[in-house]
Design a protein that fits this description.
By secondary structure, this protein is mainly alpha-helical. Helices cover 66% and strands 3% of the residues. It is built from 45 helices and seven strands. The strands form two sheets. Strands 2-3-4-1-5 form a five-stranded parallel β-sheet, sandwiched between helices. It has a two-stranded antiparallel ribbon with strand order 6-7. β3, α8 and β4 form a beta-alpha-beta unit. InterPro entries: AAA_16, P-loop_NTPase, TPR-like_helical_dom_sf, TPR_rpt. Pfam families: AAA_16 (PF13191), TPR_8 (PF13181). It comes from Streptomyces longisporus.
Length: 888
């Protein structure tokens, strides 16, 4: 009797659920996908259930792809998803694979092993998204498609990340996914991904239970004959605990021993059962002889790709002897030939009958020998052409021994992992290389490489690595400068802004005048420019202005200083024409210089966002939008779909908001927030997306929705150290006013006022607290409100854009009555009509129409408000018209 049949006893409920899911899948190409999670302890029949699902699905002409995790293979990135997609990939010619994967071919292709990595290190989130997109396209081709993933608790983290993302998008893809796992077994990120996968199913997990005594009796009689008596059957259940795998193995032992299934023989069952697992299994293996044992050990070390040839090489035996051992182990039900239906390309010739056996064999290898065999396996795998990355899982198991060559192999493996978007795997290799340890002249470089690998995933760890690297010899010249820059980035991401600034400042002081010093100074000014805790603003701005005055833009360091100077002048509220002139000097024929592109890592995205925003707030929206759009295109084509793409979408939204295209702004900002959620809450990019989205919802008049987003995002103090545009304090103050919490709103805006004054941020558009605070204080403290409006108008006139002056006049008009209010409102309309900011123009028209009691102006404002998607403004204009305010 086969194990599969045993494992299907008392599985009617699970099989019924699968059949129902297959009915839905096969009925209509447009049906929603579904996911079933099967949980069960080892030996309860998960694999057999998946085999039955395959059989049923293939009877219905479904395409079935399957894969499984391996206990010793969890450190191999993308291992399980590669196995899963092998049937589809091997059937495609390279040009067909490129066609099906489309733009994702160069991004996801290296992770799948179907194309060589590019020169630029891919974004892990982009690789994940590329795999999701690629599988979705292949799934549409191969409908109806069933994906079976066994032993998911042993899947590599990269596969689980992909599967969690794929499961979230099953609503619009007709595919059935069945995932089998043991409860527990994993922790950390892998556990989080498995929980997300289970949640995506939308239904409880199918928890497999042990066989009941009746089912065990039925299985026993079906295997040994109807004459098996009740006491014997009961003892089978008592000995195995109803575990299907152990039951089948025990009954096979009974058959082999020709034991009569009667009460008198029941006492021998426990001894037989011990020989089927654990120490008994090892003893049974030893009975087959030293060569067969050595072969089994080598197979357990390899874990997958268990071909007779590779095992023979690892076990140091000739091919004929290896074939003999393989046959012995198959006869003993330790190894088996893989099922042709589920075997994958290049998977090898053999596999263990059950993961429990593989685990027992692996654990039976003496520790010292196991370590030595992993070292040999690394060499065998490398010489077979599978590369350093595949060999690295064996190198990770080797004891440290001052091996210079091993350090270099691990460094090479780390580079291969990074090239396919697996920084966690690279981190493991480099951390192991440090234990060897590296030679003194190499040690700092390994730490530096490790810091680069963990920059975005573990900033606190990165800080330790890079600080250690910088404290020892080995990093010089440009490499050292780059390490300092990356250290400052890690400090920034870890919310240690002041230390980031001081680190770069101290390193700059060590260098003589020249390109390296200028780069470090530029980085220092960049971090100071976005550090909300920096209080030495006037002196800093003057030093930056003096430095930029000497720059002609002849190299990238000078261009960076000009960009920083332009942004600093913007937030200080200096003349807009001068801001634009400085920014223009930082460009080459109106474009970013080579080496300063959106995916160039020497400077970072923050700098280019500053440049684009300088144009956006100086009413040069065409140029700003060209940069924002270029960022999105560049990141999407490069597969960077993490924090970089989130910021790009947030600023696309900011551009739409400045234009007055509020519907489009909301869509872009919701996408930015979705991407930011995946990277992590609390980061500046998350605040950026949330702040701008809430601002747009308020402009649209969707106050309740804005409040809900704020509550969902934790949009409240404490605020992040880096500067965020839009200023969260100003936006939260406006939100509090909108929901009727007037005093709380005033308090928040006054905090924004204090923070801006400490930093010397005097541009009323960039840090927009003044206009809202003046309006809020109009009745409570009219004198102060008037002074705030006067100061804001003076600063707006100094800045000099139509938008800034128009907004200041709108604010002044709101504080006046009678003809003075009408005149100021008319002036606001004149300025804002000339600006590119259509929402502000619409608001000014409506306010002027109300003040002047003009039907014409109200209707013009109403039309503009509708085109902007400003529903609240539309309602305000309609109410004014319906009330009879417009009479002239």
């Amino acid at each position: 009797m086969e194990a599969a049949s045993a494992s299907l006893w008392e599985r009617d409920e699970e099989i019924t659920a699968v059949k129902q899911a297959l009915d839905t899948l096969c009925a209509d190409r447009s049906s929603s996908g579904s996911l079933l999670m099967v949980r069960g302890e080892a030996g309860l029949g998960k694999t057999a259930l998946l085999a039955e699902i395959r059989r049923i699905a293939e009877q219905r002409n479904c395409t079935v792809w399957s894969t499984r995790g391996g206990e010793t293979l969890r450190s191999v990135p993308f291992n399980v998803v590669r196995q899963l997609l092998q049937p589809a990939l091997v059937s495609l010619m390279p040009e067909e694979a490129r066609e099906y994967l489309g733009d994702w071919y160069d991004i996801a292709g290296p992770a799948l092993g179907i194309t060589e990595p590019g020169e630029r290190q891919p974004d892990p989130q982009g690789v994940c998204d590329g795999l999701v997109a690629g599988v979705r396209r292949l799934a549409r081709r191969d409908w109806p498609l069933v994906l079976l993933i066994d032993d998911a608790h042993w899947a590599d983290q990269e596969t689980l990340r992909w599967l969690a993302a794929f499961a979230e998008r099953l609503d619009d893809l007709s595919v059935l996914v069945v995932v089998a796992r043991r409860p527990g077994e994993v922790s950390g990120e892998s556990a989080r991904h498995l929980d997300a996968i289970a949640a995506a199913s939308g239904q409880p997990d199918a928890d497999l239970n042990a066989l009941t005594p009746d089912a065990t009796a039925g299985l026993t009689r079906a295997t040994l004959g109807a004459h098996a008596d009740a006491p014997f059957c009961r003892e089978v259940w008592a000995v195995t605990g109803g575990n299907p795998y152990e039951t089948v193995e025990l009954l096979a032992k009974v058959q082999d021993s020709e034991l009569e299934p009667t009460e008198s023989a029941a006492g021998e069952l426990r001894a037989l059962n011990r020989s089927a697992r654990g120490g008994g299994l090892v003893a049974r293996l030893e009975e087959l002889g030293i060569d067969a044992t050595r072969f089994a050990w080598a197979a357990a070390i390899l874990g997958n790709g268990i071909s007779v040839g590779l095992v023979a090489e690892l076990a140091t035996m000739d091919h004929d002897e290896a074939l003999r051992c393989a046959e012995l182990l198959q006869d003993a039900r330790i190894l088996t030939e893989p099922d042709p239906a589920s075997a994958q390309a290049d998977d090898g010739d053999l596999e263990f009958v059950h993961p429990l056996i593989a685990t027992a064999v692996y654990n039976s290898i003496p520790d010292a020998l196991r370590t030595a065999m992993h070292g040999i396996a690394a060499q065998v795998v490398t010489e077979s052409g599978r590369g350093a990355a595949m060999a690295s899982r064996h190198l990770l198991q080797v004891h440290p021994d001052d091996d210079e060559e091993l350090v270099e192999q691990l460094r090479e493996a780390a580079r291969e992992h990074l090239a396919v978007g697996a920084p966690d795997a690279a981190r493991r290799c480099l951390e192991r290389a440090l234990l060897e340890p590296p030679l003194p002249e190499v040690h700092a470089r390994v730490l530096y490489e490790l810091g680069c690998a963990t920059l975005l995933t573990a900033p606190a760890t990165t800080i330790d690595h890079l600080q250690s690297a910088l404290g020892m010899p080995g990093l010089d010249g440009d490499e050292r400068v780059d390490a300092v820059f990356r250290l400052s980035q890690a400090l920034l991401h870890n919310d240690q802004m002041e230390e980031a600034v001081r680190t770069v400042e101290a390193e700059a002081a060590r260098h003589p005048e020249g390109p390296a010093k200028m780069r470090l100074q530029a980085v220092q000014y960049m971090w100071e420019g976005i550090y909300s805790g920096e209080s030495n603003s006037p002196g800093r701005s003057q030093r930056l202005a003096d430095l930029a005055r000497t720059c002609t833009g002849r190299n990238n360091s000078e261009r960076v200083l000009l960009m920083l100077r332009g942004f600093d002048a913007l937030i200080q509220g200096e003349n807009a024409e001068e801001v634009v002139e400085v920014c223009d000097r930082a460009l080459v024929n109106g474009r970013l210089a080579p080496g300063l592109g959106w995916t160039d890592t020497e400077w970072g995205i923050e700098l280019l966002v500053m440049l684009a925003n300088s144009y956006a707030y100086t009413d040069r929206l065409d140029r700003a939008e060209s940069f924002y759009n270029e960022a999105v295109r560049t990141y999407e084509s490069a597969g960077w779909s993490g924090g970089h793409l989130s910021l790009a979408h947030a600023h696309i939204g900011l551009g739409h908001r400045r234009r007055g295209r509020l519907r489009e702004a909301e869509a872009s900002l919701r996408e930015a927030l979705r991407l930011a959620e995946r990277v992590g809450r609390g980061l500046p990019l998350y605040w950026c997306a949330a702040s701008n989205l809430i601002d747009v919802l308020l402009a649209r008049g969707h106050v309740d929705e804005a409040w809900a987003i704020a509550d969902q995002c934790g949009f409240a103090p404490p605020y992040p150290s880096p500067m965020v545009m839009l200023d969260p304090r100003s936006v939260r103050g406006r939100l509090l006013l909108a929901v009727g919490r007037t005093q709380d709103g005033i308090n928040e805006l006054e905090e924004a006022e204090k923070a801006a004054a400490a930093r010397g941020h005097h541009n009323p558009l960039v840090i927009p607290w003044a206009f809202d605070l003046a309006r809020a204080l109009a009745k409570k403290d009219p004198a102060r409100a008037a002074q705030l409006a006067t100061d804001a108008r003076r600063r707006a006139e100094r800045f000099g854009t139509d938008t800034a002056i128009g907004e200041a006049l709108r604010c002044a008009a709101a504080l006046e009555t009678g003809q003075r209010a009408v005149r100021l409102a008319a002036q606001a309309v004149a300025y804002l009509e000339a600006s590119p900011c259509q929402y502000e123009h619409a608001a000014a028209r409506v306010e002027y129409g109300i003040a002047a009691r003009s039907v014409t102006e109200l209707n013009r404002g109403l039309a503009l408000a509708r085109s902007c998607g400003a529903d609240g403004l539309v309602a305000q204009a309609r109410a004014a018209l319906e009330s009879g305010l417009g009479v002239g």
